Amino acid sequence: MGGISLRNRLILAPMAGVTDRPFRSLCRRLGAGLAISEMLSANPALADTRKSRERADHRGEPGPIAVQIAGADPRWMAEAARRNVDSGAQIIDINLGCPAKKVCSAAAGSALLRDEPLVARILEAVVAAVAVPVTLKTRTGWSPESRNLARIARIARESGIALLTVHGRTRACGYSGRAELDSLRALRAGPVLPPDFPLVANGDIDSPERAREVLAYTGADAIMIGRAAQGRPWVFREIDHYLATGKRLPPPTADWIRDTLLAHLDELYGFYGAERGVRIARKHIGWYLRGRPTPVATSQSSLDPGGPAAIDLTRINRAETPQQQAKQVRAVLERTIDLEDAA
């Protein structure tokens, strides 16, 4: 992409409230070749809010630095791109795929798929505004009845976009059902994109085998992983190893997961401060603990006093200080280590 090379074909998807600096850095350490920031609004009135400042904070983060912006005004989008490049962004990603109502109600995100001329003006304005590569993340259309991926891809190529990521769902599909691959396969096989134009597949890629299947079927050059990395950031190294060798890595041990989670919590406390860090950490803790050998209960009433000891997330979530939260998490994971040893 414009002289920028990635170490592998694995990209962390931008996810609001998830892909902050601590999580991006962690995923990069665990095998992601690129990690894209949470979506930043192009609205200049929001440029200096706490949320925007935190989302644009890349201090100490390994490059290349990629920032995603969203908006419906070409001038605002161009200015947002310049502002972020001036702050160190090496790649600007344009959001054309977010299905959230608050984004679509502002005619941004996937709502733009209904206005192709406006898409062209936005892409052209952003590409002309900055000297770094500009990429685009989109969906296959507004609804199953109005898929227009091929036309959006042509607009992207003609506007100077350097890479295209496609989530295999329409906006109307949200995140329901299974992401489809036929649209990406047809796009790669068709005349719209040159063979050397980078295409990234996104949607429901949650295992090494699925990653290989998606790459083979679609002809995409890379894959983008989102929800599968929540609570499982090591999925990147698992997929990277599998694509390179055809063999699965052994699953991480409980003590390694314990150390990884506690280190992640420390970074969240340092980034957000004690009070907000504890609150923000709760969702990550839930994601890490799901699927562990100890059952997870979300309320005291769901605990089975006659069954195996369960993780009570309600109790963990009542912790008010980093020390209390980390202590409870450590205790829970020590229990899973004992269970694994016993097995």
Key terms:
12% strand; globular; 343 residues; alpha/beta; two-stranded parallel ribbon; 11 strands; single chain; 9-stranded parallel beta sheet
How would you explain this protein's 3D organization?
Helix 1 (21-29) links the parallel strand 1 (10-12) and strand 2. The chain has a nine-stranded parallel β-sheet. Strands 10-11 form a two-stranded parallel sheet. It is α/β, with parallel strands linked by helices and 343 residues long. Mean pLDDT is 88; it is low at 103-107 and 297-309. It has helices spanning 21-29, 50-55, 74-86, 101-104, 116-129, 149-159, 182-189, 208-218, 235-245, 254-272, 274-289, 313-317, 322-342; strands at residues 10-12, 34-35, 40-41, 66-70, 91-96, 134-139, 163-167, 199-202, 222-225, 296-297, 311-312. Helices cover 43% and strands 12% of the residues. Helix 5 packs parallel to helix 6 and helix 10 (254-272) packs antiparallel against helix 13.
Brief summary:
The protein has helices at residues 21-29, 50-55, 74-86, 101-104, 116-129, 149-159, 182-189, 208-218, 235-245, 254-272, 274-289, 313-317, 322-342, and strands at residues 10-12, 34-35, 40-41, 66-70, 91-96, 134-139, 163-167, 199-202, 222-225, 296-297, 311-312. The chain is an alpha/beta fold.
Report the count of strand segments: 11
Mean pLDDT: 88
Using only CA atoms, what is the Rg? 21 Å
Name the shape in a single word. globular
Name the helicity range: 40-55%
Q: Gap between N and C termini, in Å?
A: 48 Å
Q: Report on the biggest sheet.
A: 9 strands, parallel
Low-pLDDT segments: 103-107, 297-309
Largest sheet strand order: 2-1-9-8-7-6-5-4-3
Helical stretch tally: 13
Structural class: alpha/beta
- Approximately what portion of the residues adopt beta-strand conformation? 5-15%
Order of helices and strands: EHEEHEHEHHEHEHEHEHHHEEHH
How is the quaternary structure best described? single chain
